[in-house]
Amino acid sequence: LQAFSKCPSPITCSTFxxxxxIFAYAVCYDWSKxxxxxxxxxxxxxxxxxxxxxx
Length: 55
Fold this sequence. Notes:
Elements: E1 11-16, E2 22-27, E3 46-51
């Protein structure tokens, strides 16, 4: 189990690659607060990749 820094937005999707050596996740607005809270000028979508240690 690995802890990372807090993300500025929700993690909307995550997965491991085929052999489990890389963890990938997307961070972006998830629409849980509706369209009125979405601000396209400040909303960023980011994809992060982390190497998995100890496999």
